[in-house]
Amino acid sequence: MSNFNIWNQYIKENVICIRNYEKVYKVKNKETGNYFVLYEVDKKRYKMYFNQSLNQENYVKQFQLKNTIPIIEKINTNDFFYLTTEFPLINLEDYLKIRKENISIEEIREILLQLKPHFKLLRENNFIYKSLQLSNIILFSNQIDKISFNLLEFNLNSLIEETQNNKQ
């Protein structure tokens, strides 16, 4: 662990979300000018909230279940744990608003096929995606002429616990 200062590497553009122990920022890399999403986990607040120390490995695993976007960088300091991910181009809701023509059945099929593995991963790990909406389906461009879709949710998904009540 170190006293590395993340803000020597990134410029805060704006705050996307604040939770009990975590802040999510849109940031710009000072060197490249590329935009990223930066998750800042306050270790002290995390410990107060969950009554246990942050286990970075478990946090990363849970993050990857909730946000199927690949993690670009993980940075551990004395006080914070940081994750960076690619910044989405646009969400599906906004994309549909700016399109000149209606979305075709073939395009809908392609979107659903791209999302299918993400739902499968969530289901296999007993997670429910609580807020499926167009604004939580984000677009990334892997190639100039191809758009790729992914799921995003800044709110926590719910872990399904097998209790006597839900077994009945």
Q: How would you sum up this structure, described in words?
A:
With 168 residues, this protein is an alpha+beta fold. The chain has 2 domains: 81 residues, 2-Layer Sandwich (Phosphorylase Kinase, domain 1); 78 residues, Orthogonal Bundle (Transferase(Phosphotransferase), domain 1), CATH 1.10.510.10. The chain is built from 5 helices and 10 strands. The protein has a 5-stranded antiparallel sheet. Strands 6-8-9 form a 3-stranded antiparallel sheet. A hairpin with a 5-residue loop joins strand 2 and strand 3. It is globular and about 50 Å long. The C terminus is likely disordered.
Q: Would you kindly provide a brief summary of this structure?
A:
This protein is α+β, with helices and mostly antiparallel strands and 168 residues long. It has five helices and ten strands. The strands form three sheets. Strands 1-2-3-5-4 form a five-stranded antiparallel beta sheet. A three-stranded antiparallel beta sheet has the order 6-8-9. The protein has a two-stranded antiparallel sheet with strand order 7-10.
Question: Helicity, in percent?
Answer: 25-40%
Shape: globular
Mean pLDDT over the residues: 75
How many domains make up the coordinates? Answer: 2
Largest sheet: 5 strands, antiparallel
**SSE ordering:** EEEHHEEEHHEEEEH
Query: What CATH architecture of the largest domain would you give?
Result: 2-Layer Sandwich
Strand content: 25-35%
Secondary-structure class: alpha+beta
Which class of the largest domain in CATH terms? Alpha Beta
Overall strand count? 10
Low-confidence stretches: 154-168
Q: What's the N-to-C terminus distance?
A: 47 Å
> What's the helix count?
5
- Give Rg in angstroms: 18 Å
Write out the CATH superfamily name of the largest domain.
Answer: Phosphorylase Kinase, domain 1
Instruction: For the largest sheet, list the strands in their spatial order.
Output: 1-2-3-5-4
CATH topology of the largest domain: Phosphorylase Kinase, domain 1
